[in-house]
Write a structure and sequence with these properties.
Number of strands of chain B: 8
Order of helices and strands of chain B: EHEHEEHEEEE
Number of domains of chain A: 2
Number of strands of chain A: 9
CATH class of the domain at 15-30 and 38-73 and 93-161 in chain B: Alpha Beta
CATH architecture of the domain at 15-30 and 38-73 and 93-161 in chain B: 3-Layer(aba) Sandwich
Order of helices and strands of chain A: HEHEHEHEHEHEEHEHHEHH
Largest interface: A-B, 21 and 17 residues
Number of helices of chain A: 11
CATH class of the largest domain in chain A: Alpha Beta
Helix content of chain B: 10-25%
Helix content of chain A: 25-40%
Strand order of the largest sheet of chain B: 3-2-4-5-6
Distance between the termini of chain B: 16 Å
Oligomer: heterodimer
Distance between the termini of chain A: 13 Å
Radius of gyration of chain A: 19 Å
CATH topology of the domain at 15-30 and 38-73 and 93-161 in chain B: Rossmann fold
Strand content of chain A: 5-15%
Strand content of chain B: 25-35%
Chain lengths: 307, 191
């Protein structure tokens, strides 16, 4: 992999994705050792700039960086000078003056990581930009799928729920189609963008037939904070028509693997008995997230001098 | 990569000598480790693995028991990561679950500057605190050490100059194996 930044999955080749996944296998071994830390990135300082809320991604990146012995700066917009009116570029330039080598950024506006990459020298990792991309989530999802099935060729993966607001969906679509999986999107018509079939996916509005087809179901959260218009009548209505419960899954007589990027709205897109069942690999996804982010960070750190 | 100057390679060990040497090393290990009940053979990535596997096989056969085996990658512990001399990719680590108080025999093909072994020692102790760590190498290039590191078991010690490269071509079966010296037009890049 010869990139300075990880801005999205769209610009990665299948081979580069597989390189990251292969390296992540080795990093997963490290985080299961008695001493879970290697000294590799002692010379690197990384700033985590979170202009939007996060639990998993922020902790996962921070832990990955610490496991690699990098120095870590954490920044949250909510308690910073952004509130006093400082611009994004001024904020970032000020942080970089403190000799930071790499920036992990999450922002509610799509395109912020790409914009920054044109103005600053540091390596940039996109930790989610609005409704655009969330590349490390797609990589850890792919890693978790590969752990279960070993290969992507011919695998049926359903992405179910709020597609239109989801950067996880878009990055997953890019990632899984590049790797050779069949991707089907499912949700209410109001939450699936028109014309998305152009990305090489199929679309269904029927959750039962989709689950019957799928080897893996990646269930997405209903993003109430991004929903600026009523996309469906009520959460109860959504749960009734698109929510996934154990009783429904059991009727198919097969072990569909259930994934969810979190945070879960229990009882809305997924019921508690599914989220906590043996079919669910939701917590494996979280563990794998650290390994995948170590791999990405290590690979990019070595490419810092790349153009 | 710079091209090698075309010169006749100088053979250090032919396949017969290699066979004898590897068997001799195996017997030396048995002499010191008895039944291997508290010992682990650890091959160093990438080029120590095959030698370690050969020794492991000979010793297991001789003792009629399976002895502990590990694979260690030191690339995250190298002292030149910040210099970005080359892009490092991780190889597999496969160490036994517990190395506390064990006797570790670390195995590599060529001992040159000693830097790989230094980083391997760092990598190893992150798995626990062994009782002792010994080093076994097939070829010791004794004139080029940059670190105070010595092997306890040596296949063959050679004098060589910086621009020479030691090529260890191990094959299983051993009849097709050879160790030879080539001349390059650049100082050796071996770590």
């Amino acid at each position: 992999m010869n990139h300075k930044h990880l801005l999205g999955i769209k610009t990665l080749e299948a081979e580069e994705i597989l390189t990251i996944l292969d390296q992540a296998v080795q990093f997963k071994e490290i985080i299961n050792r008695p001493i879970k830390k290697v000294p590799s990135l002692r010379d690197i300082t990384i700033a985590n700039l979170f202009f939007e809320n996060s639990t998993r991604t922020k902790l996962s990146f921070e832990l990955a960086q610490k496991r690699l012995s990098a120095d870590v700066l954490n920044f949250s917009a909510s308690n910073s000078s952004v509130k006093k009116g400082e611009t994004l570029l001024d904020t970032v330039h000020n942080i970089l003056s403190m000799k930071v080598d790499m920036v992990v950024i999450r922002h509610s506006s799509p395109g912020v990581p790409i914009f920054l990459s044109k103005h600053i020298d540091a390596s940039i990792i996109n930790a989610g930009d609005g409704t655009h991309e969330h590349p490390t989530q797609a990589l850890l999802d792919a890693f978790s799928i590969r752990e279960k099935f070993n290969s992507f060729k011919g695998l049926n993966v359903a992405i179910i729920g709020d597609i239109i607001h989801s950067r996880v969906a878009l990055s997953n679509i890019f990632c899984l189609t590049k790797l050779g999986a069949n991707v089907r999107l499912c949700g209410p018509p109001t939450l699936i963008p028109k014309g998305i079939e152009a990305l090489g996916v199929s679309v269904s509005y029927d959750v039962k037939s989709t689950l019957e087809w799928a080897n893996v179901a990646n269930v997405l959260r209903i993003q109430m904070e991004r929903a600026d218009a009523p996309y469906f009548p009520s959460l109860n209505e959504y749960a009734k028509h698109f929510g996934i419960n154990k009783e429904m899954l059991d009727t198919f007589g097969k072990d569909t693997v259930i994934m969810h990027p979190g945070p879960i709205n229990r009882g809305v897109e997924i019921s508690t008995d599914v989220a906590d069942s043996d079919q669910s690999i939701i917590l494996d996804q979280v563990e794998n997230g650290v390994a995948v982010r170590m791999a990405v960070t290590f690979l990019l750190a070595q490419n810092r001098s790349a153009v | 990569m710079a091209k090698s100057i075309k010169l006749e390679p100088k053979i250090i060990l032919n396949s017969n000598q290699l066979k004898l040497t590897i068997h001799r090393l195996a017997y030396q290990l048995i002499e010191n480790h008895n039944d291997f009940s508290n010992s682990i053979i650890v091959g160093l990535q990438p080029r120590g693995i095959l030698l370690a596997k050969m020794l492991h096989q000979i010793i297991s056969q001789k003792l009629q028991k399976e002895i502990d085996f590990g694979i260690l990658d030191h690339s995250l512990y190298r002292d030149d990561l910040h210099l970005k001399n080359s892009i490092q990719t991780l190889s597999e680590n496969k160490m036994p679950h517990n190395i506390e108080n064990k006797n570790i025999i670390l195995i590599d093909d060529v001992l040159f500057t000693g830097r790989s072994i230094r980083s391997a020692l760092d990598a190893l102790v992150d798995y626990g605190r062994p009782r002792d760590i010994e080093l076994l190498v097939l070829i010791d290039r004794k004139l080029h050490r940059h670190m105070p590191i010595q092997a306890k078991y040596v296949g063959k010690t050679i004098d060589s100059i910086d621009s020479e490269k030691v090529n260890v071509s191990l094959q299983n079966p051993i009849e097709e194996s050879i160790v030879y010296l080539t001349q390059t037009n650049h100082p050796s890049q071996e770590p």
